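[Automated response] Your request has been received and processed.

Submitted sequence:
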Amino acid sequence: MAEIIQIYSRNDTFQLLETAMRNRNKRHKQGVFMVESVKGVNLALSTPGWTVQGVLYARERNLSAWAKSILARPGIKHYVLPMALFQELSDREETSELMLMCSIREFALSQIELRRGLLLLMDRTQSPGNLGSVIRSADAMGVDALIMIGHSADVYDPACVRATIGTLFTLPVVRLEGLTDLMPLRERFPDLQWVGTSAHGEATLDQVDLTRPTMLMMGNETVGLSKACKEACDVLAQIPISGAASSLNLACAASICLYEAQRQRLRRETLPSFGEE
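Generated structure:
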């Protein structure tokens, strides 16, 4: 039978739950984060390698059959709160039936596998919402892993978790201090081309052969790729744009780059072969 923890006020237990939602440093010190979308909850429970520590729900709420099936799972603590406190914890305008408390998971660079031959690197991304949208696009476009370098937004920030629509659980995310920590990747995958994005790139994105094993490198929302990252790239590519805007939103730009990689790869697979019997 599941352990049931009854909460009636903003006691110490409630404050621990709240810091997991609101405070980055304390969230990582505790090693837990919160998930509250239906898709996110389902993927957290069904994706191997992730640990669910607890489930939160409001005492007054009539739960659906879906929610009751999750509460019936063994080995997960139940945190039962008044509706007002549950809504206070929630990061959504329309509060979910349930929230999961999941263990933070750290992926190492050595765990990366090039199944599809496509990686995405984010250099000092600042917006949790942008980061979450990028993770969602990367999952959709067949990226093997996302690598974050420098001081960046927190992958486990509620805004990022929400924006991923659960794909946080299906895409490995590796966090590194800086570019030097990335160098073992070049030794391990010498054929991997590093393609940086820049408004001053020497080639347009469609001119770069992205059917090869590739790591796409996206820069900070304000200043773009660092000088060190640009110097480490094999090629710098730009997205041709027109109109009054001088740049694109980071999540939009990442989606365009990933789509171009997918487009080239799909086209290669469907091209007819000539001269074969």
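Summary generated for your ticket: Residues 4-103 form a domain with the 60s Ribosomal Protein L30; Chain: A; fold (CATH 3.30.1330.30). The chain has a mean pLDDT of 93.
If you did not submit this request, please reply to this message.
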